[in-house]
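Encode chain A's predicted structure.
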Amino acid sequence: MTNFMRLMAVAIFSLGLFAAQPSAAQSMSLQQAQAQGLVGERLDGYVGVVQNAPGIAGLVDEVNLQRRQLYRDIARKNNIPLNTVEKLAADKAISRAASGEYVQDASGNWVRKL
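Encoded structure for chain A:
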């Protein structure tokens, strides 16, 4: 496994760890919001609001900020474009989404994963 692939694996694992715990300002975790159909995985490696509810926009903003920082670090360390890291992360996150959670299809529409 190349260093880049190891870093990507660690990065994707890290996404789950830091997103699992809500901050003091959040009423639910990313996983809870995904399970409730409020948030989904986008094609660009970030999460998006599927159905608006109190606190969801803030949760999405915080998760996306953390992801962007992580993706930038990986891109910089591996001397590759940020959009390459984002695309790889999106592919992994969408493939790991649980059945019934929302993901974007190739057209950018929200669909429930089968």
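The CA atoms of residues 4 and 80 lie 10 Å apart.
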